[in-house]
Amino acid sequence: ATYTLGDADVGAQISVQVSYTDLQGNPEGPLTSAQTAAVLNVNDAPVLVTNNPLSVPEESTRTITAAELEVTDVDNTPDQIVYTLASLPSGGLVRLNGSNLGLGDTFTQDDINNNRVTYRDPGDANSTSFQLSVSDGTATLPAITFGINGVAINDAPVNTVPALITATEETATA
């Protein structure tokens, strides 16, 4: 039989007990091994769970939630999962608590879970993306590309005539 150590075994001391029948047909055992040293934890890498584009109407700000972007890690808390901006979106702004983020700036999964990370559309409604690296402090995921879908809004018409023109019936105007 084979036994694979898991997270539940961390800190435990493992021993093995065997029983067998020898070549003469005699039962032998049970024999018990000495206990191992305590089982040490091995870091589990973070896992990308969700990466769905965020839809943002022009000139609007939308919150990036776990429904759009979520990384989990069985041996780290959300505040230990750190996203680093590896590239910036063309045009719009990624913000943390209302402050603009730049290349190399960071936020956490806890920030996402608590609605502190937003994207601001610059008013052009263009779709864009930016890249993120994600780390639990030991293991780092390959770069993630997070998409932004710009949504155009049907703006009301604007009068661009420079002045009001008054016309009298059967009179030419310049």
What does this structure look like?
Helices cover 3% and strands 34% of the residues. The protein contains one helix and 13 strands, in the order E-E-E-E-E-E-E-E-E-E-H-E-E-E. It has one helix spanning 109-113; strands at residues 17-21, 27-32, 47-51, 54-57, 61-63, 69-72, 82-85, 93-96, 99-100, 106-108, 117-120, 128-135, 144-151. The longest helix has 5 residues, at 109-113.
Global outline: rod-shaped
Distance between the termini: 99 Å
Order of helices and strands: EEEEEEEEEEHEEE
The largest β sheet comes out as: 5 strands, mixed
Helical content stands at under 10%
List low-pLDDT spans: none
**What is the structural class?**
mainly beta
Strand content: 25-35%
Mean pLDDT: 90
Rg over CA atoms, rounded to whole Å, is 30 Å
Number of strands: 13
Strand order of the largest sheet: 4-13-12-7-10
What count of helical segments does DSSP give?
A: 1
